[in-house]
Amino acid sequence: MGGHALLILLSVASLALLPGATPLQPSQAWSLFKLRQLLGDPPVLGTWHNYTDFCYGGDYKTASAFVECYEDSVTQLHIMGDPGAGARPLPATFSIDAFFTTLSRLPDLKVLTLTNLGLWGPLPGKISRLQKLEIVNVSSNYLYGELPRGLSQLGSLQTLVADHNMLGGKLPGWLKDMPLLAVLSLRNNMLQGTLPESLKDMLSLRSLVLASNNLSGNLPDLKNLQVIDMANNALGPKFPRLGRKVASVVLAGNKFSDGLPADMLASCYLLERLDVSGNRFVGPFPAALLSLPSMEYLSIAGNRFTGRLSGNASCGENLRFVDLSSNLLTGSLPGCLLAAPGKSVLFSANCLSTAGDDSQSQHPSPFCRNQALAVGIVPEQGHKKSGAKAGVVAGIVLVGALVVSAAVVFVVRKASAPKARPARRLVENASSAYPSNLLADARYISQTVKLGALGIPAYRSFSLVELEAATDNFQVSSLMGQDAHGQMYRGRLSNGTPVTIRSLKVNKSQSFTRHIEMISKLRHRHLVSALGHCFQYNLDDSTVTHLYLVFEYVHNGNLRGRISQGTEGRRLSPAGPSVPYTRWR
Ligand SMILES: *[C@@H]1O[C@H](CO)[C@@H](O)[C@H](O)[C@H]1NC(C)=O
Ligand SMILES: *[C@@H]1O[C@H](CO)[C@@H](O)[C@H](O)[C@H]1NC(C)=O
Ligand SMILES: *[C@@H]1O[C@H](CO)[C@@H](O)[C@H](O)[C@H]1NC(C)=O
Ligand SMILES: *[C@@H]1O[C@H](CO)[C@@H](O)[C@H](O)[C@H]1NC(C)=O
């Protein structure tokens, strides 16, 4: 036997989703009805009835409104109004303060979605009463005012999404006080001013989306970030400092005007998307961007990039979309861009010799030379000599009207099918595929849990940075074993505690709720000394891709033995009945 006790544990943990558990506390049911009333009985909650047992599942759950419980308490509340109906603000009698007061009577809430409901008012500071919040989405409402300071007290908050509201003021510096915040998205609001320098201290932050606001000035150091979307602001002139792990950078429609830092970008080997279109960039276009190994989407359209492209330049094999339009490029289009079925390549309004493709019309080459001189750029002295002479004349300033086209902002979503985001349905059907002896054991476990045990280290959420530090960036030397579901690492936390870290791939087809509920259960798994968990997010859509579970490293206990032994090629049936319980009885 042996094998992965943890996997079995996880399977047991997911039994939390089985119906027939404790009914919801009456006071919480009352709060849910009160919330419905405060929202003016929206159609989306039409399935809530007096006799609804919210923790049971059943007919009241729809894809756009549902509740998840752990035991008799609400842990998730999702109410998503119909975006098509064009939600109006709720009537003048609506009080967002009263709404959040009622909400705070659901103290175990971890995941909260309130979208397209017409909520209006400033986000109340008393949101801090919901101490367990991990994921919040309040997009597409009419929230205004500044982000409340109370948010900084939400020590477990990992994702905050408030796109399409009217939030204003500056992005507050106290965001750095939220140790686990990994995803912050405030697209299409009314934020102003410069971004706080303290953003560089947010070690957990992975995705920062502030597109379509009114932000200005240079960006702070963004070296920890993987996803950056700052489109349509007034940011610039300096290109920000990026880290090597960056995957997507969208700076379209701003006021960046210095050059692209070719050296820094050349080391961004995970960069998939770079969109700097519609700015005022000048200077040479680093053609090496085309050959970055991960690059899929590159747009430099509508700038004043110069340089002589070489027909034999190479392209990365993932490149799908390239837009070079409306710059001052000369030379010939790289062959790897031309002969490319399934690739979309735009290059009109440059001075390229286009080898037969007349559909994307070009300026005569003196145009680019003159324009380049007009903005004081010395055209890059290419390998070939012909362009070199013009450079000598730098300094002549032609005050010609620049015909740089208006900002072209591409919001093309990734087209490749396997990467397309599956419709995310959070409604989960509890599986009934577990054998009954397992169920019996699960019940036994939850009773022992209720008896309580002493001396358990506090359970908490970890940041990916902490886990990286603990395992020396998940070094091979820390690897204890692996199987089809993921890896097991040995490590040491910064306070010296030795730990084992189980990494589990989260299948996109599995719902996220399942994992949240699993974790609810694990919180009580003192018998295996679970210290905490950590999520890793998908770069595109902020869904969870990996779940890390952190356990105390048990020196002579069975746990370690069970975890580390027999890892090679051994497959564990999720319903393996008896193994893990021997130690618990
Ligand atoms: C719920 O019960 C109250 C009284 O207990 C009643 O006034 C109300 O109409 C009921 N609502 C629904 C939706 O059945
Ligand atoms: C937030 O809610 C909106 C509207 O329901 C949805 O489109 C969006 O994907 C959600 N964002 C996240 C990160 O869950
Ligand atoms: C954007 O901010 C600037 C000041 O930084 C202000 O003058 C301008 O009116 C703002 N624009 C909008 C649309 O709010
Ligand atoms: C392209 O060809 C020229 C000569 O025709 C050569 O000097 C240059 O190194 C080549 N570049 C690449 C990237 O192969």
Automatic annotation (TrEMBL):
The keyword DNA-binding does not apply. Residues 562-585 are annotated as: Disordered. The chain crosses the membrane at residues 390-412. One of its GO terms (cellular component) is membrane. Residues 474-585 form the Protein kinase domain. Keywords: Leucine-rich repeat, Membrane, Repeat, Signal, Transmembrane, Transmembrane helix. The keyword Nucleotide-binding does not apply. It comes from the Eukaryota. InterPro entries: Kinase-like_dom_sf, Leu-rich_rpt, LRR-RLK, LRR_dom_sf, Prot_kinase_dom, Ser-Thr/Tyr_kinase_cat_dom. It is found in: Membrane. Gene3D superfamilies: Phosphorylase Kinase, domain 1 (3.30.200.20), Ribonuclease Inhibitor (3.80.10.10). Residues 1-23 form the signal peptide. GO terms for molecular function: ATP binding; protein kinase activity. This is Protein kinase domain-containing protein. It comes from Triticum aestivum (Wheat).
